[in-house]
Structure formats: structure tokens, C-alpha cells
Amino acid sequence: MSGGSSGSYTLNGTSGNDLFVSRGSNDEFNLNGGNDTLIYNLLNKNDATGGNGKDSVNGFTVMKSTNWNTDIDFIDVKSLLSDQVPTSANIKNFISSVQVKNASGGTDTVLLVDRDGTGTNYNPTELLTLKNVTTSVDELLQTKQLLF
Ligand SMILES: [Ca+2]
Ligand SMILES: [Ca+2]
User: Fold this and answer.
1) How far apart are the first and last CA of the chain?
2) What is the whole-number distance in angstroms between the Cα of residue 98 and the centre of ligand 2?
3) How far apart are CA 123 and CA 115, in angstroms?
4) Which ligand lies nearest to the CA atom of residue 15 in the structure?
5) What pLDDT does residue 70 have?
6) In terms of pLDDT, which residue wins out, 69 or 125?
7) Which of 38, 2, 29, 22 lies closest to 148, judged by CA?
8) Predicted local distance difference test score (pLDDT) of residue 67
9) What is the DSSP code (8-state) at residue 53?
10) Cα of 54 from ligand 1 centre, angstroms
11) DSSP for residue 2
12) 135 CA to middle of ligand 2, Å?
């Protein structure tokens, strides 16, 4: 299922495994359980988020042990970074994270994208907020939930 092209848009997933594709709107993805994947494509080559807006997701689940968990979810930025050469050694030049307190007193994790890494055309720009999730790019790389 795909987000909207402009404005804001809410997408409600099923309890099964869903594919959510970001589009130009500020999408709110409600995962609702299952192994869901959020896909970020390069929609606009001249935009700091690749034309994806600023999205948020409810129900993102981080793998907290080595056991497979039927609820863990994935973020796929392969296409978003397709004009770069991200590797495990430099991926953190492109994707970074900050943790922020939210209005209800919990913690959100905000993922930022810098489309040209150490290049100077782009700076880290908010892409996706994982609502009520405390994690980091390091952890998502370790659990292989960030696909690049
Ligand atoms: Ca979007
Ligand atoms: Ca789902």
C-alpha cells in the first residue's frame, strides 16, 4: 500500500505482513502487527528527503533478542540511496538517528537522511519518526532491520 502524494495521509496496515511505500505526503503508517516493511524510494532527486516528506510510524517493533520475532519490522532505503554507494562502513553518513521526548512523555526515535553523505549538497533531514520506540541506527543495523 502506498502513501499519498501530498498533504498528510494515514495508512492502516493489517495484522499480517504489509509493504508500506512512502510517497510525497507526510504519511502516518499504522503497522498493526506482523513483519512490515517501509519502503523509501527516490521520488525527487532535488529534495533532501528524496521527495518523501516527513513520515511517522506507529507500532514499529525492534528485535530485542536474537530470536526471530513475528512482529519485527523493516525500513528499506535501497532505492532512496540508489544514487549513492552505501556500505556497512559508511551507511551512518547517510542515515542517522536522534531520540526525542514526545508529547505523552514517551520517547520517539527520529531517523534522518543525508542524501549525499559526506557531500555538501544535503544535510541530515528528518525522514521518519518511530513513535514510542527507543532505538538507534546502530541497533537497526545490528538487527538487520535497516536495509540499504
Ligand atoms: Ca511520505
Ligand atoms: Ca502489519
Assistant:
1) 20
2) 25
3) 8
4) 2
5) 81
6) 125
7) 38
8) 61
9) -
10) 6
11) B
12) 20
Residue pLDDT, tens place only, 55-102? 999 999 999 876 677 899 999 999 999 999 999 999 999 999 999 999
Distances (CA, A) of 145 to 20, 35, 100, 103, 141: 15, 10, 20, 26, 6
Q: Which three cell numbers stand for residue 91?
A: 551507511
The pLDDT confidence band at residue 7, using thresholds 50, 70 and 90, is confident
Ligand located closest to 13 CA? 2
DSSP state of 22: -
Q: Rounded distance, CA 36 to CA 14, Å?
A: 9
Cell numbers standing for residue 75: 525500513
pTM here is: 0.94
How many angstroms does the Cα of residue 28 sit away from the middle of ligand 2? 13
Residue 108 has which C-alpha cell? 520517539
**33-45: pLDDT as tens digits:** 999 999 999 999 9
Instruction: Please tell me the distance between residue 95's alpha carbon and the centre of ligand 2 in angstroms.
Output: 24
Find the Cα–Cα–Cα–Cα dihedral 4, 94, 76, 56, rounded to 10°: -40
Q: CA 68 to CA 108: how far, in whole Å?
A: 23
Task: Name the residue type at position 40.
Answer: Y
